[in-house]
Amino acid sequence: MMDRRMLLGAGGASLLGGFAFFGGMGKSHARGGNFEVKLSEAEWKKRLTPQQFAVLRQESTERAGSSPLNKEKRKGTYVCAGCALPLFSSVTKFESGTGWPSFYAPLRNAVGTKADNSLFFKRTEVHCRRCGGHLGHVFDDGPKPTGLRYCMNGAAMKFVAA
């Protein structure tokens, strides 16, 4: 039989697990790295929308299918929403069926990566190499020629038409 203490403990553990799953806990790489563009938290909040701040600076994830960049088909460049560094060419964009903009390769010297074990399994997090903003993750199930899928948060980027 479950008593009140057990119920509260289970609820608290579930809540903590939910925060970890959605990236709401832990130190953000964007805050701790040595990057060219450094702003205070207040300056980032002024520069970014609340959703962009949550994704880029707190390593959150937008809801699948929510980004208008999913449907973007024009030629152009996807740039960091935090510092405007060009990240991906539209030439490398493909439809992955995941609900997030996906690319098979970043532009040269555009992104950095780090190990991410936040979901109890190993993933590789992708961030803007200039400001450290969290972009998404890279997986090894993409198309040729690289075999990689850079699964990016649309909120982390802006599109600049060619």
Description:
By secondary structure, this protein is α+β, with helices and mostly antiparallel strands. It has a single domain, classed as Metal Binding Protein, Guanine Nucleotide Exchange Factor, Chain A, CATH 2.170.150. Helices cover 23% and strands 25% of the residues. The strands form two sheets. A six-stranded antiparallel β-sheet has the order 3-4-8-7-6-5. It has a three-stranded antiparallel β-sheet with strand order 2-1-9, with no helix packed on it. The protein is globular and about 40 Å long. The N terminus is likely disordered.
The backbone outline, from C-alpha atoms, is: globular
Number of strands: 9
Q: What do we call the CATH topology?
A: Metal Binding Protein, Guanine Nucleotide Exchange Factor, Chain A
Distance between the termini: 64 Å
* SS element count, helices: 4
Number of domains: 1
Query: What structural class do you assign from the helix and strand content?
Result: alpha+beta
CATH class placement: Mainly Beta
Radius of gyration: 17 Å
Supply the CATH superfamily name: Peptide methionine sulfoxide reductase
Name the CATH architecture: Beta Complex
The major β-sheet equals: 6 strands, antiparallel
- Rounded mean pLDDT is 85
